[in-house]
């Protein structure tokens, strides 16, 4: 911190000096002011003389002055995110310019793997979203910035907890058992993937406020350069940087968040519950209490949060820098839940040797402190007997002091011997308040990129990127011995766990890039070849114990492991006549996860582009400003099959405590030979993509249409092997094929664009369909498939299945039969095969959790200093299995003999009138199509306050403003499609202040 | 030219980096709980640790108790435990037990409605093949050549030779279970098969029977003498008992009566073994039931060292619930799932001390109108986690109670039945004497004694129910009498009807799991599935 | 600004789409086609029911199987009720699946009539029968056939439980009797610890026999006291009783017994017996006695009549008025167990 402070001072001094030293020699001086579309000043705009490298930058008031060679000169005004303006100087000496935002953000340059390209020259399906288009409001995680913005990208937050991670799917996911997460590359460092103990979100290392752009690579011609890890798409994140000559800019961004909890599962009230027990279990009315507790009200709260971010950006001579610090602290709407984060980032990108040597150093670090509420409380609050009090109170219960002293004062269902009933629903409030579950996660992502343009061959560039991604999660969980829910009569109760997980990811990446324009044949060649080495270490260890640290209840899990990925890659871009584009990439990946015989995978891709609008026959079609056809084909790979990093190797595993065996009078530790597949190899996905990019009316309307087909073969699949052929029954092996096909459409329009008033609308639509085409070696039609989608209720029951000819994770259910009133007839299902029995063979595939069609819509409207925006999303045809209802919506739940104890039921029981549970009934399969208004925001910008060059923006935002759906559960948007004890997503009201100077 | 040199240098640099890193791809496990197959036997103790795993395969579900590192997948780990699955197949399918849970297809066992996609059946099947694969791997890894290669001492070699006999016994035991539960169309693998991608061929009933028989006969004389092995390990007594069981059911398996052979091996156990009946029947099923002289082979559990959600944890916990005080079972609480039907209860006289039921006075009813209601049907308090002195076991969640897989009483009854079915070498008089010993223990006196006129096959079937209920014999017994399926003998909720109804004879065998029929195209599904 | 309304309209449109989007078609169960129960003509059923033909088939009902618009699983129940009652008190006589016929035994049909429908036995009455198809559980969908009517005469079925429990005044079980013939005779010994009131009944307590005016124990073993359903208690003093009940004839007898041994092997010869001792914990009579080579028998109350036990065939099971039991000289513990039928005795060398 001390270092940071002195550095900051030094930078400030340097910046001061820099401002004083400006060139003054000129043949002719031109000056003026650059404004943005709202009439505000635009500092930092590059003003260059066309055809030269000379230029300047507008100051904090948007003013510039530049010396030009003469009246023939043309000034080029450019600024990231705005459309470039070229203005001939003529005889003027004062030129004021207004820049308009580029509708296609970052129209000029998009980041692709190992390099950049011009948007218009991109041959792959690449979409960039920059900071101006990000979602606003209570954004605690980077991916929240993107939700709903990009066709083909589904981002579903995993719950309503603060700082929670998300499930990201690009074009539906191409793997079954292997990971379907996209590869995330931050400033050129591919992240390890997967989370870390104690963390809510693997992307926590990155403060959303530091992010400059997201670039989504969707098709294989764009992703194949990342080869083995790119089958599920790639998200490139670049963080904000400064540039040479930048003036010192300070930005403060603060937010105050209020989260409201208003979602509840409908359960019986105490009186209703009491009378139902009296009616149905008259012999157990003695188990009822006298209280009237709404357990859901007891566990939820309206929560608060704050966020502060400060960044300083500028340049000291040739050393542009940007530094930021951030702090956020949000409570969850589930009581005791909290997420606090400190983050800092530093970016230095100096250039040396006449810009021949560019160095870019990025460091991002964060410390996250989590307090985890026990989410078991959510289900417990639905089920807990509402006639019991939160705390013992003899006026309610008449139960002696025993309970008060022994169980922390919290009500617990007790046996006659005074001990808690083990299987009874835990007191939800006790679960929250008696459990102390804290973690600290340290994240660091750092990299140094050295880019050298050869002096002897300026067309050739060498780029070395050294990266280091480190995270460490530490936490402990403590539950006191007097917690009834953690009681153990045998060995003393409670929980005393500590854990640590360390993940390291070291990267060495080196490539050479050769760019040459060959005017003789009107061609441009851009060739690149490189090498990448990545080492991953994952080490976790800890102690799990009870409070007494009883040896019988203590284990010491530890699981260190290593993985190495090694790659060669190359890319050739060939452009002919600035109209015809060809991209060819090839990557060879090797993974330590597979045996030497199979570890090498080759991933080629090829893409063609045709800029049709450059053709002469379209030159007089004025309305058409852009028309490009893209065709791509490529192969990508997958090796990320989860936690087992040594799958091909014959190994033995020693037994841990509790799994020894008695011979004579001694217990022997055992060894187990593990199952393995020495032939396991890469899963391969082939993608075909055809697309048209279009622009009309001078690009006031732009967009693209993509059609794709993705076929995955040799699926890395965790499937049953022939019994007796291996050392276990399921192994990871390459069996099966699946395909995804879809259409993506996007349109961005600017219906109004005047200096005072600008209106933008963006809409994207995605259609995706996926199907498993092969699952096993044989094609036995009797084989149903691999069950998946575990539900709560019957232990081990699955509601979904991967079957050939069906989308993956299709629901696999009995068809419920209804009576004339539309009410389900308990236990009556369609006997599909008509054999007079309802058995497994009567289950049918029905729907799946993925939407058929999804929409994203966003719009911004500015009028003078006002800015109003909203963004929302809709999903159609996504189905949810309402597990909370299937478990709790039966009369059978009321009295539980395994305690015994009483359990509350959902009001849905009145609809179904189900006595017993029918988990496999499609009655619980619900259409969960929805429209969600993700955010609505209104801001006002105060410009140049007190003439000090201070700009202040005040913003009010509502996140998750409303949801339109027919689904009657807590939330229709459930990743995986099984709605059980879902942590409700709160509505957030955010007041934000943004100050620039 | 200068460029070329520089470029070459750069490329060479590339090659250097590449080659220096390529070895990094040969990562090996760094987890201290894991080692490679090539290194594991550097520790001579590994042989016994492997042996322990083969036995533990019957008791626990993986390498961490009670759960966490499962041996087999595709099913809830607790469900995948060998004894739990075996109990469900052998007991739940009969009048001895009914279960109230909604776990997947668990109710189909008692209803006799299961299909080839049943996850519980798959668990049993894959558990059986897990044991077989372990034994095969042990036999592969401990050949004479391999031991010499590792330079093992003569003493180690002698011990390993014993372990190999036990591995073959355990393999024969699991193959017997395969034959009994799934019939002869099951895949057949031995230590001569490799590990990896191949599809084992099915064997047939005759050949599988003969394989089991020949294996047991081959080790009969070499395995540790009867009654002399360490507790928990198989010896001659276990081999003989398994032979007797195989022969008793030979008519079912291969349509050929082998009752004389059954008598021969039952007699060996009785006459040559040190086994005697435990004085108190109840003590056979309690937390301190280790080292009992009646038990020939047991699966051992411990509240601290050998923990599982299957095994006796399941048998005891699932039987406990409702108004029965958990302390009576030595547990902190029960799972309220399994009860028995009146078809079993009514087999007992009032004075038969083996009727260890919890009746109306504990809120249970004899009649079962709702399968899901735990309090309908008498609860069974046979297996408990209390010691013979009434103290609780070492843990209140995971019982210490061992499971007596083979015990002398069963051998007595097999002797009697084989004699009655025409086996030579034994007498009815001796059979009556053995059975009266069981009945005297049950009644506390001679009041339950029978005479030779009473000794009928029907009597033996009922007596087996009374003596051996919930010990995983019932399904096999009923099939031997042709009463498991069909309508000759029904019990509550057989065929999913309260009063019980006739069921299809296909249910005498379980289907091969659809998953394996699909993965292994050599297999043919059992008839009518 | 006017463009904003298009956006609002677009959002509303999406909302509407969601609201209107059809779920998959939910099958609604409807019976289609005929579901009829075949008429029964005279001769197709037993018009007069009686105990003699209790095991015979009353009738075989045949119907056309029900058809539903969706295939599902159903059970059939045969229901009977008084004619004209619209099956308001319908009683299910049997349940079947997967078939379109069911036979009902005379016993079961009669049970439905005299039991739940409360028909007066031996009077003819009109009844109606129909078949219900039941799909689903707990609150199932039902479809019915037409009703067919019959005129039948019911009978009073004999009460024949597996064992007959002797209940004390607080309904506690104090003993039980086992059938000794096929004619409804039950016999057993009951130890009444203290003066009590007793009844007889089945285990389920569905039928309880008593008689609050009954004389109780007497000096013979003749069945000379009547029993009635649900009628009071019989008062007895403490004692060890032989109890005989006939459930066909609804009568009983109690005879108090104190057992002894008598015979040539005993010190007093055949002249007088030597009393045995009752051991309540074991429910047995026992004596340890020095004997000579000879014979003996068991007899109660120092009387040969109305009851004594010898042993035909020397199988350890005593018979009334059976053969003398041989015994050799020695000291023996003789135990007589009358707690369970068949009775038993043992002679073991005294320790
Ligand atoms: Ca069916
Ligand atoms: Ca034990």
Layout of strands and helices, then pairs:
The complex is a heterotrimer of chains A (997), B (529) and C (351).
Chain A: H1 2-20, E1 28-35, E2 46-49, E3 55-57, E4 63-68, E5 74-78, E6 85-88, E7 97-98, E8 109-112, E9 115-118, E10 126-130, E11 153-157, E12 166-170, E13 183-186, E14 189-190, E15 211-217, H2 220-223, E16 234-239, E17 249-260, H3 270-280, H4 295-299, E18 303-316, E19 319-331, E20 338-348, E21 351-352, E22 357-371, H5 376-383, H6 394-397, H7 401-406, H8 428-433, E23 436-453, E24 460-479, E25 495-518, E26 523-543, E27 561-576, E28 580-591, E29 600-611, E30 624-638, E31 651-654, E32 661-663, E33 666-668, E34 671-673, E35 683-696, E36 701-713, E37 716-720, E38 730-734, E39 737-753, E40 757-774, E41 786-790, E42 798-802, E43 810-813, E44 816-818, E45 824-829, E46 844-846, E47 853-863, E48 866-876, E49 879-882, H9 883-888, E50 895-896, E51 901-902, H10 908-912, E52 925-927, E53 930-945, E54 950-965, E55 978-979, E56 987-996
Parallel strand pairs in A: 1-7, 13-16, 49-55
Antiparallel strand pairs in A: 1-4, 2-3, 2-5, 5-6, 8-9, 10-15, 11-12, 13-14, 15-16, 17-18, 17-56, 18-19, 19-20, 20-22, 21-22, 22-23, 23-24, 24-25, 25-26, 26-27, 27-28, 28-29, 29-30, 30-35, 31-34, 32-33, 35-36, 36-39, 37-38, 39-40, 40-47, 41-42, 42-43, 43-46, 44-45, 47-48, 48-53, 49-52, 50-51, 53-54, ...
Chain B: H1 2-22, E1 34-36, H2 46-56, H3 82-90, E2 98-99, H4 107-111, H5 119-141, H6 144-149, H7 154-182, H8 205-220, H9 236-248, H10 250-254, H11 259-272, E3 295-299, H12 311-319, E4 338-339, H13 342-345, E5 357-358, E6 379-380, E7 403-407, H14 408-420, H15 428-443, H16 457-468, H17 474-480, H18 514-519
Antiparallel strand pairs in B: 2-4, 3-7, 5-6
Chain C: H1 4-20, E1 31-32, E2 57-62, E3 67-68, E4 74-82, E5 91-97, E6 101-105, H2 106-116, E7 124-135, E8 141-144, E9 148-153, E10 164-167, E11 173-179, E12 185-192, E13 196-201, E14 208-210, E15 225-226, E16 228-229, E17 234-236, E18 239-246, E19 251-256, E20 259-262, E21 274-275, E22 277-279, E23 284-291, E24 294-300, E25 309-310, E26 319-320, E27 325-327, E28 330-337, E29 344-349
Antiparallel strand pairs in C: 1-3, 2-6, 4-5, 4-7, 7-8, 7-9, 10-11, 10-13, 11-12, 12-18, 13-14, 13-17, 14-16, 15-19, 18-19, 20-21, 20-24, 22-23, 23-28, 24-27, 25-26, 28-29
The complex binds calcium ion (2 copies).
One calcium ion binds next to loops of chain A.
